[in-house]
Amino acid sequence: MVNKKKTWKRARKPEQKAERIDAILEAAGVLLDEQGLEGTGLNAIARQAGLSKPNLYVYFESREAILLRLLLKESVAWAKSFKRRLDQIERVGDVDAVADAFAASLARRRRFCTLSASLASVFEHNVGPETIAQFKREFLTIVQPCVSALSEALPDLSDEESSRAMAMLVMSATGMWAHCHPSESVQIVYKQPEFEHIKFDFKETVSELAGCFLQGILTRT
User: Fold this and answer.
1) Dihedral through CA 176, CA 177, CA 182, CA 183, nearest 10?
2) Which regions of the protein are recorded as binding DNA (predicted)?
């Protein structure tokens, strides 16, 4: 990884501060892609962004705060993709089409899935209550258009049911990402006949999960 460091001047204007924040988030994203969460520490982020570690604390209270902000950024892209796919569904009440749309929207969202899967266990630690509250407010705002589109696609779901279904599906599906994209050693093991039945394709598995889950809610209502 070659990092061409930028020479930063002191940020005085809002647009300069926004530029620093964007650089920090981009650095964190690159490290996440290349080295995983383990390699996305404050020192590494600072080096990748061309900033000193103390400068990071001017903009973020911790590594976890940086990754929460990065998750919000990735959430915007995912939510737009999912809503667009929901809007393209031709037949109202088509659970399979909704499930396929959900799975397809996540299939290439490595950052979003990786970050979401670690939200409760990692990122919501080492940050203050206000940071967490602000994250949740912004996330709910980001996904609200998807919740509304889900209610339109499956009108038998109430708004509350659509909201809860969205939350539970995201938690479940993103948690599958690591299992469906295992290490090289696990991939070798999965080639053995005795383990083939526990090798899962992410998109197919998420679609099946979403379909069964949504159908269950509709049957119960």
Assistant:
1) -140
2) 41-60
Residue 102 near residue 206, CB atoms below 8 Å: yes
| Nearest one of 66, 160, 198, 180 to 122, comparing CA atoms | 66
What is the spatial distance between Cα 195 and Cα 182, in angstroms, rounded to a whole number?
13
Residue ranges of the chain that CATH labels 1.10.10.60 = 12-60
Q: CB of 51 within 8 A of CB of 93? A: no
Rounded to whole angstroms, how far apart are CA atoms 53 and 90? 51
CATH topology of domain 63-219: Tetracycline Repressor; domain 2 (1.10.357)
Q: List, by residue range, all CATH 1.10.357.10 domains of the chain.
A: 63-219
Q: What is the pLDDT along the chain (221 residues), one digit of tens a residue?
A: 445 555 555 556 778 889 999 999 999 999 999 999 999 999 999 999 999 999 999 999 999 999 999 999 999 999 999 999 999 999 999 999 999 999 999 999 999 999 999 999 999 998 999 999 999 999 999 999 999 999 999 999 998 999 999 999 999 999 999 999 999 999 999 999 999 999 999 999 999 999 999 999 999 86
